[in-house]
Write a structure and sequence with these properties.
By secondary structure, this protein is of the alpha/beta class. It is 32% helix and 17% strand.
């Protein structure tokens, strides 16, 4: 592996390549990004401004057709003393290489390798008893498909993370669990024949990205690389879709995540084949009511925060909803930190 280098986000960010070996498409790697907090100024030092999360490490995992670019999210954590890291998964964002099928895996557990390597670089080496050797607390933060991936990971790797925060996690198929059960045998059969066949027609009309450009922080939108985060989401291939359906089925059967979970969601969804201004204040990707019902099956301690006016990525919403999303996150995190402070 190479050392840390200056990231595309510029000052305050660095990246590290994580070697994952090879597959049929050639060398595979993931990319770990870290945020370097700005130095505290004289008054902050003199007044000893509180940093309640100074013993916390955060690992962020992005969603489908996505990668990490959210400066504001990193600044939220580092301003409170936490160390912030983000992982661009294999064949996504910074990790995508020429000739690779973007975002493609056939099992979400394949991501265990890059998550383990990322945690090791963060100082959370896993001991033989499957516990972290670090004395720092670990918060996992996932958006959309990244939220599904981290939920399944936390269930399989209990005793490692200290909290799980999910930003509009894709926990259930948009149409319903009944539809998921009906299409799963079909997708299993098709995957046995040709896993890289197109599973579904392209239904994304670009409304979600349009809404972000119109209401999100323009500084963050200026950083977006359209090759890594296309206007229209990536094609849905059978092998990948089967992995998603399997993840949804596992959530529906009930997980046993052993740490507090916070789920942030828009208050409403808005779908359609034509643009409506309501899409500026709604989740146009997931059915948030289905996600809220699925979320209570993650574990014994689940908080669900519904946000009026929020987009699918609640931290890229219009200013009022975005401020409320960060306020709710701050309230939950500070409460969690105080309640679960090391003895």
């Amino acid at each position: 592996m190479s050392g840390w280098r200056a990231d595309v986000l510029g000052e305050g960010f660095e990246f590290l390549r994580l070697d994952l070996g090879e597959d049929a498409e050639g060398p595979v790697e993931a990319t770990l990004v870290r945020s370097i907090p700005r130095p505290r100024n004289f008054w902050e030092r003199a007044l000893r401004a509180p940093q309640p999360l100074s013993d916390v490490d955060v690992l962020y995992v992005h969603g489908w057709s996505d990668y990490f670019f959210q400066r504001g999210l990193a600044e939220f954590w580092t301003a409170r003393g936490a160390r912030f890291f983000a992982l661009d998964l294999r064949k996504c964002g910074r990790s995508l290489r020429e000739g690779q099928t973007p975002g493609y895996v056939e099992d979400l557990a394949d991501y265990d390798l890059e998550i383990a390597l990322a945690l090791e670089e963060m100082g959370h080496r896993l001991a033989p008893d499957a516990r972290s050797t670090s004395d720092r607390r670990l918060v996992l933060l996932g958006h959309s498909t990244g939220g599904l991936t981290l939920s399944l990971w936390a269930d399989r790797h209990r005793g490692i993370a200290d909290a799980l925060i999910l930003n509009s996690p894709w926990l259930e198929l948009q149409l319903s669990g009944a539809v998921r059960k009906a299409v799963t045998p079909v997708m299993n059969f098709r995957a046995s024949l040709n896993p890289r066949e197109l599973a579904l027609p392209q239904l994304d009309l670009g409304f979600y990205k349009r809404a972000q450009r119109m209401v999100a922080d323009p500084r963050e939108q200026a950083d977006v690389n359209p090759l890594w985060r296309p206007e229209i989401s990536l094609p849905v291939l059978v092998g990948w879709f089967r992995a998603i359906l399997d993840g949804h089925a596992r959530v529906a059967a009930g997980l046993q995540i052993d740490v507090p979970v916070c789920v942030l969601l828009s208050a409403r969804s808005q779908f359609g084949m034509t643009w409506r201004d309501e899409m500026l204040r709604s989740d146009t990707v997931l059915d948030v009511d289905l996600i809220a019902r699925a979320a209570v099956k993650l574990g014994d301690s689940v908080t669900i925060e519904r946000l009026d006016g929020a987009l699918h990525d609640v931290f890229l919403s219009e200013p009022l909803a975005r401020r409320e999303a960060y306020a709710r996150l701050s309230r939950w995190v500070i409460g969690w930190s105080a309640a679960y402070a090391p003895s």
